[in-house]
Amino acid sequence: MDIDNRPFSARVQELVYNVEVGIGLRLIRGILYFLALGLLMLWFSGTHFKGLKEAEAMEYAQLGRNLLQTHRLQTQVIRPASMWYLIEHSRQHNPQMRAHPDIVHPPLYPALLALGFTGTRGSFEASAISGVFKPELWIIWLWGHLCTLLTGLLLFLLGRRLFDPRHGLLAATAFFLSASVWQLSISGLNLSLSVLLSVAAWYFAVVAVDRWQGGSALRRWLPFYLLALLAVTAGFYTRYSAALLVLPLALFIGFSQRKAHGWIWAAVFVGLFLAAISPWLARNILVSGGPLGLAPYLVLNDTRLFDGDAFERALAPVLQAGRIVDALEVKWLVRFAAFYAQPLRTVGEGLFICFFLTSFFFQFGRPLVNLLRWCVGLALLLLLLLAPLCGESTWRMLAIFWPLAILYGLAFLTVLVNRMQMTYRILRQGVIGLFLFLGALPLLLTLLPPREGPPYPPYHPPFVKHVSNLLKADEMICSDMPWATAWYGNRTSLYLPATLEDFYEISDSFRHISGLYFTTLTRDKPYVRQLLTGPYKSWFPILEGRVPSDFPLTQGFPLNNMDQIFLTDRTRYGE
Q1: What distance in Å separates the CA atoms of residue 464 and residue 493, rounded to the nearest whole number?
Q2: Domain-embedded: residue 333
């Protein structure tokens, strides 16, 4: 056993040195950094999180609860189009109205929510203090924050490996000071998880290639190769559009070691990915008849054939190959021009994305850094080509490139600052600090009053639970926001059919509809273009209070000064 025989004064002096300039100083700085980060996270959540506001987030939440309770990926949100798809394509040719399989979403995020919901002990009620649904307050936003924190850590590690530790820390700091990052974190969407898995896939691929190029043994780089494969596969099981990363990652592996069987390992990467997703594709074929279920058909929304979400609400959509191709071509051209003109330049807070795009005209010193940038650029291009067809849900996947845009944008900014040959180091640091401040300015402004309001209209859990609880647990409600009645009301919820005739057919032939719930989602639509002469014209008389004589739902009441209307088949208030 070694005994330190140095004088006490020498040991004290060493301790003071470590605290002032050694490991102790780094430890103190690290603790202060994480305390500030935790304070920022709690401050943003406390001022901005008032419950879920996204339809997709509520739909994933009810999928997680159903997975917890039934151990199957079943949904309480029934689209008329999914009924049509199951009748036309599944082996059973049955819409399965009482155990409706989800044929739209991948399973990983609902599975993680189900895992989190086990901690709620079956309690799906609003908090008495905040009024926010308890699973949202204690589980959903925590998942988002955990993904955000891990993404920042991986971004630091990636920046340290590609550039240096200081650059990695600056990139992680800029990421944490981004308002859009925290908005995604509390949204309840699976995008924070997608961002984490994307950065993880790139980081593990970089580590594997870097070690491979350095001559390391197979056992030293193969685990990271497999981790990159695992991350991109998990990304696909989170959002289907994450499959766009597979080809750029394979090219990154192939080009990095062209003389050492790099293309063989690239092909193996693609093959293992296809093998890993095949069980889910087989499940979808078994359940619905298609490898991705209804999801690919949703590109028909917002075309000349189906205005807005009319395809999802159509019980018997008319599909003709020639007309579909023409409609999708027009949709792609119109929306690509619109997306390119605005959202591309406002990814994140827009500042670093400009430097990231400009960095493609600069050659960094390390070939690995340049190769990674071009592969990331290819993935971005593929998403830009796909997003105009798939709409906002896929367009939001641009968020997965925001951390890498920060990393490369800061690197290019640093090169420009160094070439300015400023005399004093504090001036160079001041320029970079200014850009960090400008990037953080949207976040600072959002933290100031006025505070974020509740998600009404249209989402107000007490209203939704009130009308849902008027129905029995085995009865079905029809609504223009079925994701809310499914999540807050825990009722099987039919998405408002495209026409009144479809409503009659579903209620008479498949399952009786016991309630109809209209909200501001419909009532606030343009009067002439949508309600009077547009796709909602068959529902317009009911919205005005002129219920047809043969309509089965004749009892009801308005909510919140006619903002919402609820109709049902009999008087239920005393039940």
Answers
A1: 12
A2: no
Q: Which residues pair with 476 in a beta bridge?
A: 492, 513
Residue 451 forms part of a structural domain: no
Q: How many CA atoms lie within 13 A of 14 on its CB side?
A: 7
Tally of structural domains, the chain: 4
Range of the domain at 517: 461-568
Asked if the model's pLDDT at residue 317 lies above 60, the reply is: yes
Q: Dig out the tokens for 46 from the structure.
A: 């406390």
Candidates 455, 426, 434; CA nearest to 130 is 455
Looking only at the bridges linking them, the beta strands covering 555-559 and 492-495 are unpaired
At 128-144, the pLDDT tens digits run 556 678 888 889 989 99
Q: How far is CA 76 from the centre of its chain?
A: 20
> Edge to edge, what strands does the sheet with 476-479 contain?
77-78, 492-495, 476-479, 513-518, 564-568, 555-559
Average pLDDT (483-497) is 96
The Cα 227–Cα 222 span in angstroms is 9
DSSP SS3 for 516: strand
Residue ending a domain, choose from 396, 418, 446: 446
CA angle 61, 63, 64 (to 5 degrees): 65
Q: pTM (2 decimals)? A: 0.92
Mark whether 20 and 35 lie in a shared domain: yes
pLDDT digits (tens, 9 = 90+) for 468-479: 999 999 999 999
